């Protein structure tokens, strides 16, 4: 396998992983900041108060974007990985 093909495939794989993980990471960041702000304003320092809503938001966004994630990964494997394995 040529080095250019290897590095290009690696670059595409890393970019796809960034694109796929962005919605979940953005929601986790927004939920964490908003809950932290509420905790700072009300002086409530409970650890489960940050964990449970953030986990719920992440699960909802994961459920909503699961089809997009599956399509993106499947397209990458069908269009890029399988032809490399087959030598095409």
UniProtKB/TrEMBL annotation:
Positions of transmembrane segments: 12-35, 55-78
What is the recorded membrane topology of this protein?
Answer: Multi-pass membrane protein
Q: What is its main location?
A: membrane
What are the entry keywords? Cell membrane, Cell projection, Cilium, Flagellum, Membrane, Transmembrane, Transmembrane helix
Q: Which cellular compartments is it found in? A: Cell membrane
Q: Which GO terms describe its cellular component?
A: plasma membrane
The name on file for this protein is: Flagellar biosynthetic protein FliQ
Q: Does the keyword Membrane apply?
A: yes
A single BP term in Gene Ontology:
protein secretion
The signal peptide here is none
| Species lineage | Bacteria, Pseudomonadati, Pseudomonadota, Alphaproteobacteria, Rhodobacterales
Listed Pfam families: Bac_export_3 (PF01313)
Q: Which InterPro entries match?
A: Bac_export_3
Q: Please state which protein family the record places this protein in.
A: Belongs to the FliQ/MopD/SpaQ family.
tRNA-binding recorded as keyword: no
Species of origin: Pacificibacter marinus
